[in-house]
Structure formats: C-alpha cells, structure tokens
Amino acid sequence: MTDPRLETLLQSCPGLRLKTEPADLEHYGRDWTRRWTPAPLAIALPGSVEEVQAVLRWANAHKVAVVPSGGRTGLSGGAVAANGELVLSLERMNKALDFDAVDRTLTVQAGMPLEAVHNAALEHGLIYPVDFAARGSCTIGGNIATNAGGIRVIRYGNTREWIAGLKVVAGNGELLELNKGLIKNSSGYDFRQLLVGSEGTLGVVVEATLKLTDPPPASNVMLLALPSFEVLMQVFAAFRERMRLEAFEFFTDRAVHHVTAHGAQYPFAETYPYYVVTEYAVADEAGEAAALAAFEHCMEQGWVLDGVISTSQAQAQQLWRLREGITESLARYKPYKNDVSVRISAMPAFLEETQALIGDAYPHFDVVWFGHIGDGNLHINVLKPDDTSDAEFLGQCEHVTKLLAQVLQRFHGSISAEHGIGLVKKPYLSSTRDAAEIALMRGVKQAFDPNGLLNPGKLFD
C-alpha cells in the first residue's frame, strides 16, 4: 500500500478492511462484461453503515471516485472500476437484521445474496418473490441498484414493487432513511423509488426493508416446442387466458445447443427452432385441466409441436435449467448482449422487425435469443466467431445496437430492460430518455452527489 491517501483512509476508519493485491483489484474491478481492464485504486470492505459513511467522506475530501460493488453479476459495465476508483464492496454487510411479522417485512444489509434473502423469508413461512438465475451470487443491493426483474416479473413485478424502505449513504456521506416501511406515504418526493434503478450513481444502499408475501400455490412447469418466432405471442395469449402464469420464458435452438453442452438435460427426441418454459399455478384439478386445454388448443392451431409437463420437483428443475443455465453456458464466449424491452402489446411487431434486423446484420454469427416474453423483455446474445478480432466484433455489434436503438425509439421501448445502462448502454440512453429527462437526471445526480464521485461515467458523462 503505497498511496498516502489510503493511509489517511485507514486513519479515519481504523476498522476498515482494504485490499490492494493485483488479483483482488482485477476480481473486484470488473463485472460480467469483461470488456474493460480493471484498474481500481483499492478495494474497501466496510463492515458497518458508519464505515460506509467514513469512506464517502474521505472520498469527498480527497476527490477519489467510488464504485459501489455488490455481486458484480451485471452485464452493462455498471460495476467496472477502470480509472483508479475506490471499489466499495458491501460483501461483509450480508446479514438479515429484522423481521416484522405484522408488516411482513424483512430488513437486510445490502450485501446479502439474493438466495440468502429467499432462505431467510422462507424461515418465516413467506417469500421474497424476485428471482433469477444469478440468485446465488448477486446481492440485494445490486438488485436494487438496477431494479432487477428476472423470471417471475409476469406474476410479481420488478424489484421496486418489493422495497418498503431503504437506508442510503448519499454521495456526501449523509445517511438517508427513505420511506421507513410505510405502505402509504404522500409526504413529498419518494426518494426510495428514485434510488431503485439508479446504478450506484446517487447513493450507496446499505440496508433495505423488503416486502414479503405468501408462498405461491402449487405449480407445474411445462416445456413447449414451437415451430417459429411468429407464434410466440399467440401461445402466450392462449396460456395467459386459461391459467395463472407464474413465468413464461422463451429461448431458441441455439440456446438449447449451448446449455445442453453445458450439462442440461434435453427431454425431446428431436430438436425444434424455438422453446417456451412456463410455470403455472395448479391449486386443484381444474388448474391442471386448464393447462392441458391450453396445450391442446395450441397443438391444434399448429403453434406448438411438442411438450412435456413436469411430474416432480426434480424434473421441474431440469426443465428450468434449460432456460436458467443459458447465461452461464455462454459466459466463456464473452457474448455481446442486448437487453431490451417494449410494451407487451407491441411485442409481435417488434419481434418481427428485430428478427429481420438481426438476421441481416449477423448472417454468419451465432446469435442466441431468450427472454421474458410475458413482460416484453428480450435478450439477444451475439457470440464472437474465432476468426474475428475483438475490435472488429465489437465495432459490428455496436453498429447493430445503434440500429436496434432506433427501432426501440420508434416502439417507445427501452435499451435496457433490467441490466442498467452502465458503460455499455450509455451511448444509447437518448433512444429511451429524451433530452429533458436526461437533463433532470443530471440535476438529480448533482443534488445527491455534488462532487460527482459516485460511479462516475455510468449512465452519462
């Protein structure tokens, strides 16, 4: 530790843990994008709210930029520290603090992994319903920072629907207690919701009071094989009309190719172009009958070619792995990712136009599609060919993303459905937000972080 600024940090906060080894700097200085070379000043691991405040006061005094860090499972470069920033990792602040049985809330530290939150809620006979494949490594603070969605948005909504209160350390080190668990609170601006999705640019979430709910009724999982992209929305409409959907996820044959090579089990005798995995409530025999009726109707229409229904929890997990294992199975290819959304009603026309755009732009690339069709969210993963340089690949992908952003603008969609803007999507923010909105965002940033030290360069410059 040769930087004298770090000596003053430890003097002002004696209990703070600091990491400066090269391997730690590389590990904590990047997220799943792997596009930028990490180069942080150091890694600070506070163990309390007071230590977080001390770090930010020190940062303001010494004009050191700070990158808040959760599980770093993001895909937009939102947790990258490539320019000498101090990474502020909350991984030591990972405990459940309080459960209120009357309010049905669970208060946790921001570094608690999502899966641990799920388990803590279950100990009280309740659930925290936000869920996605990275549950074991992502943290609740990171989920809040990006307003994470996941596989059950169709039933439960995004993270912001489940935040009853927040404790946040603003850019100047001041501690804010936002909403304090109230259900009704019309006393001015709701800064709690402003912080949800702010990507660590306004403040550092240190504690969250989460709403819990009853466990869902018994459910089954069905895997459907589809003949074409065009029938996706007809199948979704048929199932949504006849049953209570918990999730409705689609993916392509290329996704199946990669995820089965990574160990997932494939249940059909032949392969198909497109797939849907759906989970639905089956509280009684009527629920099962409705699911079979929906399946048979889609088969009669030619919208579904084959299907399998889980008969056990183990089989349900196997079917879900075909969807949830996709991102992990693609990680070694360092794919270029698009994470976009439009209104559900606009999805058929958007899918048609986007499929044509991607097909023309990447005729020889391996493109893996999957998404949360039930909430209008589509993921497009482009894999780099071995004979294409990184620079050439990135340039071609960013050209196509610029065209895709123009399509999204016409459809009033979003360039980032659930991964945030970060560094990756920053050039395309104006396709989703107009100039007046972006100007207001800058004003809000100035109010919360007057010296511009929190996650600089993310969202906008």
UniProtKB/TrEMBL annotation:
The keyword Oxidoreductase applies. The keyword Iron does not apply. It is an enzyme of class 1 (oxidoreductase). Keywords: FAD, Flavoprotein, Metal-binding, Oxidoreductase, Zinc. It comes from the Bacteria. Pfam families: FAD-oxidase_C (PF02913), FAD_binding_4 (PF01565). It catalyses: (R)-2-hydroxyglutarate + A = 2-oxoglutarate + AH2. InterPro entries: FAD-bd_oxidored_4_C (IPR004113), FAD-bd_PCMH (IPR016166), FAD-bd_PCMH-like_sf (IPR036318), FAD-bd_PCMH_sub2 (IPR016169), FAD-linked_Oxase-like_C (IPR016164), FAD-oxidored/transferase_4 (IPR051264), Oxid_FAD_bind_N (IPR006094), Vanillyl_alc_oxidase_C-sub2 (IPR016171). Residues 36-215 form the FAD-binding PCMH-type domain. Its cofactor is FAD. GO terms for biological process: respiratory electron transport chain. Its EC number is 1.1.99.39. Signal peptide: none annotated. GO terms for molecular function: (R)-2-hydroxyglutarate dehydrogenase activity; FAD binding; metal ion binding. Belongs to the FAD-binding oxidoreductase/transferase type 4 family. Homodimer. This is D-2-hydroxyglutarate dehydrogenase. It comes from Stenotrophomonas daejeonensis.
